């Protein structure tokens, strides 16, 4: 009897220690999981729930409409125009930002001691709030008082002066230019970090082999930056697909939807038109599109990396 | 002509940090020269100066008859093997080896011939299509050497090429580098290491470098010579202490007088010993340092002349030999004895210190001139 009771008591203590050990990870993870659940998972799931309602978001008159909002979205040319604009923003972000960021990174990497001030100057746009930048560039592009048109006038190119943000042909381009200007420093820093990790011995070995600085850049340093490129492209595309604040401040998506993005379209539906149900459908569709494109991009870039 | 001449070479990092001081050195045609020294003595810097990778220095460097101070690294006809291999990570082994030849616009068939020949010598033919990341440390080192070979340089420069390899592979690659030297007898080689075993095994000539205050006081070069010259006839305490493992035993002593057989010194522990050196410049009673290597202390049955008697503190057995740690004098001693030495901790033991194996250094740490040859 004594044997059995002792053994069971020991077993009990061991079992408690074991279950505590099993419980520990859950306890430590709980705060983060809770935060994610409250601020990410719940809104995500609720957006999908709201997308099935016809509701202005204010009263208790919510009406279940099934997939009506989704059917409407499928034929909503404004939404698809906004989605197309997002894709244009993503493509131009990558095409414009990456090469300029690489060039700036290389220039600053080779600039020596004096480059510290330049690095800070180039990094400044990223430190400014998007809303402040939006207001600033709204003034910059102003048809009557903006410095851009004044500059064109000054250099004798007054004929090219435009209503940059009021013309459907130029609005999106004008905003994309600002977005690129704002984010180039971020990618420049990424590429500078990539260049800083390039082993000096490889440059020296190449120099002993007779390679010029240009050859070293194209054949050694640029391939070394492939991993950084992959990260930068994924970040840039995902950022462009979710973009909102600068466009909202500068054009509000106008004129005539010329610079409308999925996020601004969603915002207008929810907070201007008070169509919470349809706005949630736009938000949910935006989520699906971003996830799809990001997955394809990651898979493609991973394959690209393994081929390297 | 593949000789290398350094004349009055000095280098500082910034205004206040001299790293190389007063280097005058000649490395003869086809000679294997090892730069040896403690960390921070500037041995890699000196090598990089020969390569052309360090440019801001005073003095002159010549390769053959040509002063190369203003010559680009690629035009110095040198090839370098780096400590961490420095292979081009995005190129195959073949392309790594062919890269320098392509830059020199060498005809394609000649590139192929040279790369394949080097691959055959280094036994890396099956690896030619592989990327560097798919190679082991030893294989990478061979590729790095192959990349140097294909350029058919006048001078090979090795910057601690074996320090990233494990002990067994290091010994193997060391013999391969010695073979490489035999296969390319016309080329001069400079090899940087802090490992005295590598230096002793490979070098025709060792350049032992000072670091820190010694470098400022005496210049960078502590001693230049054949490995056994440095081992048997160290010029000063630094050289005597740097070469040999375990390090040479140093015992403080007083100069008693010059005798026919050499200088007679009295140790603080009471023993009198004679060292076959010329102490005629010393005054009687002058402080000197006696040096004797652990491997030259031989156990004897009883105390006699030219012996040291001490208490055994500990014995480390390595099979073929043992280290015996001795206490009881003014300073601890180490003796390296064959087998297990038949000693154990607590024993009292006497060791012969043969006069021909003793060294004597004056108050400034400079070796007194020997009267015999070791």
Q: What does this molecule look like?
A:
The complex is a heterodimer of chains A (308) and B (374). In chain A, 76% of the residues lie in helices and 1% in strands. Chain A is mainly α. Chain A has one domain: MetI-like fold. In chain A, helix 3 packs parallel to helix 7, helix 4 crosses helix 7 and helix 12 runs antiparallel to helix 13. Chain B is α+β, with helices and mostly antiparallel strands and 374 residues long. Chain B has 2 domains: 238 residues, P-loop containing nucleotide triphosphate hydrolases (Rossmann fold), CATH 3.40.50; 116 residues, OB fold (Dihydrolipoamide Acetyltransferase, E2P). Chain B contains 9 helices and 20 strands. In chain B, helix 2 crosses helix 3, helix 2 runs parallel beside helix 4 and helix 3 packs across helix 4. Chains A and B meet through helix 8 and helix 9 of A and strand 6 and helix 2 of B.
